[in-house]
Amino acid sequence: MPVLVHKFYTAHFNPYLNFHRPCGFAIVTVDAQASASASTKHEHYATPYEKLKLLPHSEIYSFAQLDPTALAFSGTECARRMQRAKQQLRGRGKGALGQGASTADPCPPPPLTLRKEVCPSTVS
Questions:
Q1: Which of 44, 54, 61, 124 is 20 to 30 A from residue 117's alpha carbon, by CA?
Q2: Residue 61: partners with Cβ closer than 8 Å, 6 or more residues away
Q3: Burial of 123 (0-12, 13-18, 19+ CB in 10 A)
Q4: pLDDT tens by residue, 46-92
């Protein structure tokens, strides 16, 4: 069973969360009395992948490998596929993950690493 759960997370759940599920990124402000308050506005919501691309110095990474994964399915379609896989995993009956179910259907898993591009101006 742990192998099936691992397959579910790597093939369905993690790609859904990273590429299609918006998250709120809070902005923390500190006032004169050193009291911190966090707020999350509508414009502070993005997927983790979108937020990664907005980080400073993100241009040093090549997103060419991850963009096809992010654009392969709509968020709704990827969520439906993830839910179907979860139901198959819970059923563990005929057609459960790892027992003859098709794995060509899931959101494609992302590559394991981001490649760092070497900037020509920094190479000596």
A1: 44
A2: 114, 115, 116, 117
A3: exposed
A4: 999 999 998 888 878 888 888 998 999 999 999 999 999 999 988 86
